[in-house]
């Protein structure tokens, strides 16, 4: 394939070629969306290279195949497989929602924590619900790649849960107040940093 000095133009040309079976209006809409996403990402992340941005978007053949499949389902009215409608629903969830839920889970746990001896601990319940819901929304979102989702889930859910479970097993819920607070702040920093990274790396 011939290339030019403009990798964005090459990328859009390749996508247009792969999506040639799409109706002209849908094809132009797809290209306009891609171009807009590239421009927005370049403005938000000036340090990112064009190659990195295009790699995050994905292969033109994959993008075209997805667009063709969606157009085919809409045209024929053929029911999609068990999760075929999921991309449409998932796309309606703003990417900020799962990131906020994951980030707010530790503060809710700390604010409403009533201690291990309480009959009902709302802090643990709120933190668990926020963390699980945020993790599910992250995994089912169309705004991140599979690698980004896996990394985000690992750093915002798996590592914090594993850390706190280990600490509780070692101390028997009797950790000193200051070390416990510092540990919670450290985990919150990890989750917040991961959420910021996911927000910057999101797809339009």
| Mean of all residue-level pLDDT scores | 77
Number of strands: 0
Q: Uncertain segments of ≥5 residues (pLDDT<50)? A: 78-90
Radius of gyration based on Cα positions: 22 Å
User: In whole angstroms, how far apart are the ends?
Assistant: 27 Å
Could you write a compact summary of the structure shown?
Helix content is 73%, strand content 0%.
Task: Provide structural commentary.
The protein has 204 residues and is an all-alpha fold. It folds into 2 domains: 7-79; 96-201. It contains 9 helices and no strands. It has helices at residues 7-18, 24-44, 50-57, 60-76, 86-90, 96-111, 122-139, 146-171, 177-201. The model is unreliable at 78-90 (pLDDT under 50).
Features:
mainly alpha, elongated, 9 helices, 73% helix, 204 residues
What's the topology here?
Blueprint: H1 7-18, H2 24-44, H3 50-57, H4 60-76, H5 86-90, H6 96-111, H7 122-139, H8 146-171, H9 177-201
Helix pairs in contact: 1-2, 1-4, 2-3, 6-7, 6-9, 7-8, 8-9
């Amino acid at each position: 394939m011939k290339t030019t000095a403009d990798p964005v133009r090459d990328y859009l040309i390749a996508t247009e070629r792969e999506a040639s079976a799409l109706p002209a209006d849908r094809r132009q809409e797809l290209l306009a969306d891609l171009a807009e996403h590239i421009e927005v990402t370049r403005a938000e992340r000036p340090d990112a290279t064009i190659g990195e941005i295009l790699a995050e978007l994905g292969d033109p053949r994959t993008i075209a195949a997805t667009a063709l499949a969606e157009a085919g389902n809409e045209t024929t009215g053929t029911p999609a497989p068990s999760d075929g409608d999921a991309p449409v629903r998932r796309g309606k969830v703003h990417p900020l929602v799962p990131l906020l839920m994951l980030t707010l889970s530790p503060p809710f746990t700390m604010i409403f924590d009533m201690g291990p001896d309480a009959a009902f601990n709302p802090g643990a319940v709120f933190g668990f619900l926020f963390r699980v819901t945020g993790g599910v929304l992250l995994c089912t979102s169309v705004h991140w790649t599979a690698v980004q989702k896996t990394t985000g889930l690992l750093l915002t859910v798996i590592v914090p849960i594993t850390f706190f479970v280990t600490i509780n097993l070692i101390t028997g819920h009797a950790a000193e107040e200051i070390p416990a607070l510092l540990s919670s702040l450290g985990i919150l920093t990890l989750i917040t940093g991961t959420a910021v990274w996911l927000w910057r790396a999101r797809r339009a």
